[in-house]
Write a structure and sequence with these properties.
Layout lengths: L13 E3 H8 L3 H9 L5 E3 L6 E4 H10 L19 E4 L2 E4 L2 E2 H7 L2 H10 L12 H12 L7 H14 L9 H18 L14 H5 L10 H13 L7 H11 L4 H12 L7 H15 L3 H9 L17 H10 L6 H14 L9 H11 L6 H22 L23
Antiparallel strand pairs: 1-3, 2-3, 4-5, 5-6
Helix pairs in contact: 1-2, 4-10, 5-10, 5-18, 6-7, 6-8, 7-8, 7-12, 8-18, 10-15, 10-18, 11-12, 11-18, 12-18, 13-14, 13-16, 13-17, 15-17, 16-17
Length: about 425
């Protein structure tokens, strides 16, 4: 901060352009955009080199626009979160290696621990009968061709309508809603085949008959449970950011989950596993991944299931699931095909497997539909969205308010 106050305002400290940009968490050119829009005032610095800004005015703008601290990369809003850390190709939940959690604990245990910091061995989530009945009726009214995410979205809405206490945003009320919502989402999905779940079953066991008609396979079920844990959160992915924006407006937890589901359906986010499934199934059917990869490259399509912007090497979530899939005898063919995909593309690009490819191995092996990975993703990430909502409810409301940079015609313009 500069030492010299402006004439006429001896008590007003002044900031340089660089200092103002750091406080706002934006680039220096954005500071001048604020000036042009009348959101900040500036005074030419002594000697005519640059401008200075009133520190109190800059701090007020930072509060209005929701800036908390400058981004290390010079970008905009940065969130303080104690949920996920991705560092040096490792993935941690509240400081604990997430891959170890996935090997040792069930999805419900990890979700409960993520929310409360308390590990409750053997914890199970139960759907209230009236809530589950309403969700099933609503889902049952959808067209037969509806996808799983369509069903999950309407199930959330039905569950919200049955909860008169949904607007209570106290931590205990939010957790109570979450513990009933997640099994409601699973229970509202149609059973593909075989017997449905029994009372006291784990969430993975409840989800299994809604993904495949094949009988429960214990090693494969362990992979499914681990996948649920590994997908529970992954820093501020697009759907999580949407969930935090909703929570910042004090939307109730059901609306927070609805916001996340809306973004998750995009082909570049939760639906990416379906593309990997179709590619891997074709590789298994043709007996080789080489022509399948060649077809993708020939038509200009990206080979799905490879690469991740947050990892230089192999996605640690994929590595964990691949190791668990080694214990599933019937997964051998799909595993070999997945490894051939990686090896084939590695001749030209150093891309590694991500969790979408690992999910595809599970879904192809167990006779699941292509959208099974998206279903697992959505159910799992619900707990992560709730964890972020709990953090955001403790922040100043509506703090996530970026400023638009107007690029339209300058007023006044004639009335059309």
């Amino acid at each position: 901060m500069t030492d010299q106050p402006e004439p006429g305002r001896p008590d007003a400290p002044r900031l340089t352009t660089r200092e103002a940009a750091e406080l706002l968490g934006v680039k220096p050119e954005t500071v001048y955009a604020y000036v042009s829009r009348g959101q900040l005032s500036s005074v030419r610095a002594a000697g005519g080199r640059g401008s200075t800004f009133d520190a109190r005015e800059v701090r007020a703008l930072a509060r209005r626009s929701g800036r908390r601290e400058p981004s290390p990369a010079g970008g905009d809003l940065v969130f303080r979160t104690g949920i996920t850390l991705i560092e040096d190709d490792r993935y941690y939940l509240r400081g604990v290696d997430a891959t170890e959690l996935a090997r040792r604990h069930s999805y419900e245990e990890v979700a409960e621990w993520l929310w409360t910091g308390e590990l409750r061995p053997g914890v199970r989530f139960e759907a209230p009968p009236e809530t589950l009945a309403a969700a099933r009726r609503t889902v049952g009214a959808l067209p037969a061709h509806s996808g799983s995410t369509d069903r999950l979205r309407v199930a959330v809405t039905a569950a919200a309508a049955t909860d008169p206490l949904r607007f209570d945003l106290s931590p205990q009320a939010v957790l109570s809603s979450a513990r009933s919502l997640i099994p409601t989402l699973v229970g509202a999905l149609p059973v593909v085949g075989g017997a449905s779940e029994a009372a006291g079953d784990s969430l993975a066991r409840q989800l299994w008959p809604r993904l495949t008609a094949r009988p429960v396979d214990t090693p494969a079920l362990a992979v499914l449970d681990a996948a649920l844990v590994l997908l529970i959160d992954h820093d501020l992915a697009a759907s999580t950011l949407a969930a935090r924006v909703a929570a910042s407006a004090h939307a109730h937890p059901y609306a927070v989950v609805s916001a996340g589901l809306g973004v998750l359906e995009g082909p570049l986010h939760g639906a990416a596993s379906g593309l990997a499934h179709r590619m891997l199934q074709e590789a298994v059917d043709r007996g080789s991944a080489v022509p399948v990869v060649a077809d993708h490259l020939r038509t200009g399509r990206r080979v799905p299931g490879l690469g991740h912007r947050l990892y230089r090497g192999e996605d640690p979530r994929a590595r964990t699931l691949f190791a668990l899939l080694e214990d599933v005898p019937q997964a051998a063919g799909a595993l070999a095909a997945a490894r051939e995909v990686v090896a084939t593309t590695a001749r030209h690009a150093p891309l590694h497997a991500n969790i979408d490819l690992a999910l595809a191995v599970l879904s192809v092996t167990c006779g699941m539909a292509a959208e099974a990975g998206e279903t697992v993703f959505a159910v799992s990430r619900t707990a992560g969205w709730i964890a972020h909502a709990l953090e955001e409810y403790g922040e100043r409301p509506l703090r996530i308010r970026p400023s638009g940079q107007y690029t339209g015609p300058r007023p006044p313009q004639p009335i059309p």
